[in-house]
Amino acid sequence: MEAAIDIRELNEKIEKESAFIELLNREMDKVIIGQRYMIDRMMIALLSNGHLLLEGVPGLAKTLAIKSLANCIDGEFSRIQFTPDLLPADVVGTQIYQSKSDTFSIRKGPVFANFVLADEINRAPAKVQSALLEAMQEKQVTIGDQTFDLPKPFMVLATQNPVEQEGTYPLPEAQVDRFMLKVVLDYPKKEEEKLIIRNNIAAAKYPETSKVLNPADILKSREVVRQVYMDEKIEQYIIDIVFATRNPEEYGMKKFNDLISFGGSPRASINLALAAKAYAFIKRRGYVIPEDVRAICKDILRHRVGVTYEAEAENITSENIIDEILNHVEVP
Questions:
Q1: Model pTM?
Q2: Which domain holds residue 274?
Q3: Do residues 85 and 161 both lie within one domain?
C-alpha cells in the first residue's frame, strides 16, 4: 500500500515537472511541420544527457530542428560542417602564438556550445571524428596542457547522408556506440509538405521559436527523469532484449546465430533504461511500462547490432532482427 502511495506521489511530481514539454512542443510546432518522431527523440537525448545520430537525406529540417530547440532553451548553438580537409583543431580549438607577449593563447573551437550540430559527420576523416567523440564522452576538451569543461547541458546532434558513399568515412562501430540514439528520418507526408511549401513561400517572415526554458531547467529535469520508477520486471525485460542480440539461440532464435556479428554492449542496456525513463517523462508518467521500452528500442539498438555478410546478402537489417527479438522476448 505504501509503495502505491509513493507511485501516486511520484506520478503527480512528474506530471508537474514535465509540464514544460507541452510548451516546448508548441514552440517547435511553430517552425517544424511534422517530424514529431525526430523532435521526441531529440528531447529524449537531451533529458538523458545523451547524443543523437540522425540519418536522412538533405532537406528534412535537421539543422532547423536543433537550432529551434537551442532557441527554446536559450542555449548556445554551433554548427560544424564536416569536410574531408577538416582538422581536429577546427572542432575543439587550438593554441595561437602571440608574438608581442611571446605566449600562447587558447582559441576555443565550435564544440564549446550547448547544442552542436555535426553536419555530415561521415565526411570527415577518423582523426576529426574521434576528437568530437572524445569531447562527447568525456564532456571536456584538452588544448595544449589545459583542460576545459564543456558547457552544460552539452548535446551533439550528428547527421549523415545515407545516399552518398563516395568521399565518406563511415563511423567505426566503437564510435557509433557513443551515440545514445540513431534515428532514421523519412520524408514528410503529402499534407505536411503542402504546409511546408506554404510557410516557405509566404510573404511574412518565417516563424521563429521563443525562449521558454533555460539550461538550468534542463539540468534539473535530468535529475527528475532519473527518479521515474522502473520495476525490476522492466529491468529484466531490458536485459532480455539486449542479451537476445548477443545470444539469440537462448531465446529460441537460433537462425540469427549466423546473421548477427555482434550484439548490444552494456551501454545499450544503460541507454535503453535511461531512454525509457525519459520517454515516460515526456508522456508525463512517473513509471516505465513495457511499451516505453518497445517504443524506443529500435533507436537505441539499430546502430549497436552488427549484421554479417550473410544477413546483408539476404537483405536482413539490424531493424529486422530487433523486430523479431521484440516479438520473441516475453513482455512482463
A1: 0.87
A2: 228-328
A3: yes
